[in-house]
């Protein structure tokens, strides 16, 4: 039985004060880490404080991106060494906003995944098709290509430890959620890709999240699907009450 993993991606939102208030409300209210994995994926300036404040609780703190190099002349970038030193546990890689707006490539995502494992960070690898690709019936091929490239060169054990987030781009921030069947169909395909590309054990262990307009009203239905092991949530993770409802739902699946 795979444990559900619910991650709230705040994206570029919140003031320091708002981040603080959220954590004070949520940190002792999340279910135990044995029941569900709860992660807040916060902007870089808040990470240190949030890690300190959640120490000893079941709430983990993740970053939204990083560079793959350990250090160097990369103005404006943050390295895996820095994140590890802060005590961050997870890092979201290849989010569609990074791919689209900042032109991140599959090759870069793969380098970042390797760097994450090298420094003891768990990668949450985002994959997903655009509306155009879905309408052209390319969803499965697009997602398969992204998954294989992201996992290239990893050990079987590392593949098993990876979290993959399936996020159809057309469902992100639009209020237009994939139906639970649509979401599960692609997540099932991702698990098959991992099985064929790595092995059956890794496919069985890898956790696959769905992301795209997940909210308390639809989370139960999505998490009840056979191949959905959690959610990567943007908008509905910004308020502590809503985030707590989402992690609570993860506990039941
Ligand atoms: O990382 C989160 C996703 O982009 C989903 O965002 P959303 O829940 O606001 O649609």
UniProtKB/TrEMBL annotation:
What does UniProt give as the signal peptide span? none
> What keywords are annotated for this sequence in UniProt?
Cytoplasm, Gluconeogenesis, Glycolysis, Isomerase, Phosphoprotein
Q: In which pathway does it act?
A: Carbohydrate degradation; glycolysis; D-glyceraldehyde 3-phosphate from glycerone phosphate: step 1/1; Carbohydrate biosynthesis; gluconeogenesis
E.C. number, please? Answer: 5.3.1.1
**Which residues get modified to Phosphoserine?**
213
Where found? Cytoplasm
**Which residue positions are annotated as catalytic?**
95 (electrophile), 167 (proton acceptor)
Amino-acid positions noted as binding substrate in the UniProt annotation, renumbered to this chain: 9-11, 173, 213, 234-235
Q: Which reaction does it catalyse?
A: D-glyceraldehyde 3-phosphate = dihydroxyacetone phosphate
* Gene Ontology molecular function terms on file: triose-phosphate isomerase activity
InterPro entries per record = Aldolase_TIM, TIM_sf, TrioseP_Isoase_bac/euk, Triosephosphate_isomerase, Triosephosphate_isomerase_AS
Indicate where this protein is primarily found: cytoplasm
Q: Which HAMAP family does this chain map to? A: TIM_B (MF_00147_B)
The protein's job, in short, is: Involved in the gluconeogenesis. Catalyzes stereospecifically the conversion of dihydroxyacetone phosphate (DHAP) to D-glyceraldehyde-3-phosphate (G3P).
By sequence similarity, the record places it as follows: Belongs to the triosephosphate isomerase family.
This chain belongs to the protein called: Triosephosphate isomerase
């Amino acid at each position: 039985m795979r444990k559900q993993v619910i991650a709230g991606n705040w994206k570029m939102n919140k003031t320091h004060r708002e981040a603080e208030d959220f954590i004070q409300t949520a940190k002792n209210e999340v279910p135990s880490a044995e029941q569900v994995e709860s992660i807040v994926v916060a902007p870089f300036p808040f990470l240190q404080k949030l890690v300190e404040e959640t120490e000893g609780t079941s709430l983990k703190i993740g970053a939204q991106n990083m560079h793959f190099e350990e250090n160097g002349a990369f103005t404006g970038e943050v390295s895996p060494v820095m994140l590890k030193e802060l005590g961050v546990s997870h890092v979201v890689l290849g989010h569609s906003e990074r791919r689209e707006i900042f032109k991140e490539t599959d090759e870069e995502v793969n380098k970042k995944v390797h760097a994450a494992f090298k420094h003891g960070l768990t990668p949450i690898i985002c994959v997903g098709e655009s509306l155009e690709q879905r309408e052209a019936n390319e969803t499965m091929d697009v997602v398969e290509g992204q998954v294989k490239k992201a996992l290239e060169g990893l050990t079987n054990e590392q593949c098993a430890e990876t979290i993959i987030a399936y996020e159809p781009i057309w469902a992100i921030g639009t209020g237009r959620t994939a139906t639970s069947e649509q979401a599960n169909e692609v997540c099932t395909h991702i698990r098959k890709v991992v099985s064929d590309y790595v092995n059956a054990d890794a496919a069985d262990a890898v956790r696959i999240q769905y992301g795209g307009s997940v909210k308390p009203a639809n989370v139960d239905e999505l998490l009840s699907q056979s191949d959905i092991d959690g959610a990567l949530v943007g908008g509905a993770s910004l308020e502590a009450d809503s985030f707590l409802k989402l992690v609570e739902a993860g506990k039941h699946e």
